[in-house]
Amino acid sequence: MIVVVEGMSAAGKTTWCCQAAGDTLLPETFPADRHNQPLEGPEVAAYWVEWNTQRWRNALALEASKGMAVCDTDPLKLHYSWGLWQLGEKQEADWQFSLQETRRAIAQRQLGFADMVLIKPIDASTARHQMETDITRTRSRFDLHFRLQRFLIEWYSALEAVFPTRVKWGLPKDFKIPPVTVNPGRYDLKAFDAFIASLPKPLSS
């Protein structure tokens, strides 16, 4: 089983994952050379989708060896590009590059939908307090991530409509993973297309 834990920066998802997942945890990671990459264009989409496919491969390997992988953030992280487009921080062309590259990866079974997503919305004051008291990490883009939270919620609300019961809101306080079964639509392109088509459009479009 592959379980994704999502939420904005400082929502507490990493802390929860560390206590709940044990040796089934797939940590959130980033490529070391990401700051040297261009900010737009098809090469950027290919770069990040390749990174995401590596995380998905790691999740599959962990699932094969342990029976479960708990991913701190979604390997299928297309919501980030979509959210930036919604905010006007990214051009529609760049969103389309990311979308098509991700769709190709799903068609080739290099990326897929998780079996369950646990997502934790959080209010700004609580998130800011948790950010300021966490001395182990710097979060220089906190304000952007809080602005993106609205679209993160819209993204997984739309996913919930396509895959009912597979999106859970909030993180269990007892740190126990809810019962989960394999999602038969992991690589379902029709489901992916229906999901994308159901997403809200920017107000300016």
TrEMBL record:
Domain of life (superkingdom): Bacteria
Protein name (record): Uncharacterized protein
Source organism: Acetobacter tropicalis
